[in-house]
Amino acid sequence: MTKAEILTNFCYCCEVSKANGEDPIGSAGNYDAFLFIEVPEPWPIEFWQAQPQFQPIADLATQLKKEQGLSLRAMAIAPDCQYSQPNYTRILYYRRPSEEGFVQFEKQEFVVPDEQVVTVVLALLQQPDLLPQFESSRQETEDIREMMLCTHGSYDVACGRFGYPLYRQLRSEHAANSGGKLRVWRCTHLGPHNFAPTLVDFPEGRYWGHLELEVLDLLVYRRGPVADLYDYYQGWAGLSQVEQIAEREMWMQEGWNWFHYAKVSQVLAMDESDEYYPDWAEVRIDFNSHEGRVSGTYEARVEVSGTVKTMWSSGKDKPLWEVKQYRVSRLNKVV
């Protein structure tokens, strides 16, 4: 497909990406913590800058990154007519556990009066000794699965155009019939929007992109071949880019049980010529089940397999960018 053909026939970046065979793997955000705050739509492009009441949160996040190396991803979720309460704001906070290997992020949830949001978030991030005074607002929802699906159309039209139909299906069918075990939310920019529609699935923190209505049952219920979700997996937030690429192949070997294993990952060696998109890497992942009956180690080599052209944002006359694509050239189960 030539550049002229793409610009004539496509205006959505995700359609260009998909038509050119761009693989979403390795694009999941790798963060120590995730923060979701209920904020009504509409959401402007520069969402947090348009919310001056949240500036203390942004300032603290910058400070924690500088002083402690803590990476925090903060996003808004749209209030829901069933889940939400007038004059109250829901706060969802997921953090990487302190132990070395883990399966999922640790969750805390509060529903507080609107005027207490910043105070509670600052306590979550830096002053946990203040949290007991908000104990009556704590929600015991550790057993609830939360899916955040990007519908941030002002950020990129592809997110609204392709994200909302999937949200509607997940919300009206899957969440509504889950017996309260699944909630589905609209969220601000998740990214990358060339992989729209995208969602992140908590508490595990798995990212999915280029999603289609036909795969939602498999994504939610996890009954069927894992290979049918291969092309939609962006990766696990607990791993770096090259580790995510390697981990997908291990999932293909182990099946759905893989998502229940605690993992410790290590990059053994990596090409240093390109900090963000290396040509190769050697990765090791140790895993074990909760009860200890299953354990093992995989070692993998990740290599560039070629390049494709993609479009970073939607619209006419947008430039095309050449991006590296990866494959796992060697995968050994060594233990």
Structural features:
Glutaredoxin, alpha+beta, single chain, 335 residues, 13 strands, 7 helices, globular, 2 domains, 4-stranded mixed β-sheet
Tell me the number of strands: 13
> What proportion strand?
25-35%
Q: In one word, what is the shape?
A: globular
Mean pLDDT: 94
CATH class of the largest domain: Alpha Beta
Number of helices: 7
Number of domains: 2
Radius of gyration: 20 Å
Secondary-structure class: alpha+beta
The biggest beta sheet is recorded as:
5 strands, mixed
Pfam family, one: Suc_Fer-like
Protein name: Sucrase ferredoxin
Organism: Halomicronema hongdechloris C2206
Structure at a glance:
This protein has seven helices and 13 strands. With 335 residues, the protein is of the alpha+beta class.
Question: How do the strands and helices of this protein lay out in sequence?
Answer:
Elements: H1 3-9, H2 13-19, E1 33-38, H3 55-68, E2 72-77, E3 88-95, E4 106-113, H4 117-125, E5 145-150, H5 157-175, E6 182-187, E7 199-202, E8 206-208, H6 216-221, E9 233-236, H7 241-254, E10 262-270, E11 280-288, E12 295-310, E13 321-333
Parallel strand pairs: 1-2, 5-6
Antiparallel strand pairs: 1-3, 3-4, 5-7, 7-8, 8-9, 10-11, 11-12, 12-13
Q: Can you characterise this structure?
A:
Strand 11 (280-288) and strand 12 (295-310) form a beta hairpin. This protein has seven helices and 13 strands. The model has no long low-confidence stretch (mean pLDDT 94). It folds into two domains: 3-28 and 144-333, Glutaredoxin (3-Layer(aba) Sandwich), CATH 3.40.30.10; 33-137. The longest helix is centred in the middle third of the chain and has 19 residues, at 157-175. The relative contact order is 0.16. By secondary structure, the protein is α+β, with helices and mostly antiparallel strands. The strands form three sheets. It has a five-stranded mixed beta sheet with strand order 6-5-7-8-9. Strands 2-1-3-4 form a four-stranded mixed beta sheet, with helices on one face. A four-stranded antiparallel beta sheet has the order 10-11-12-13. The N and C termini lie far apart (45 Å).
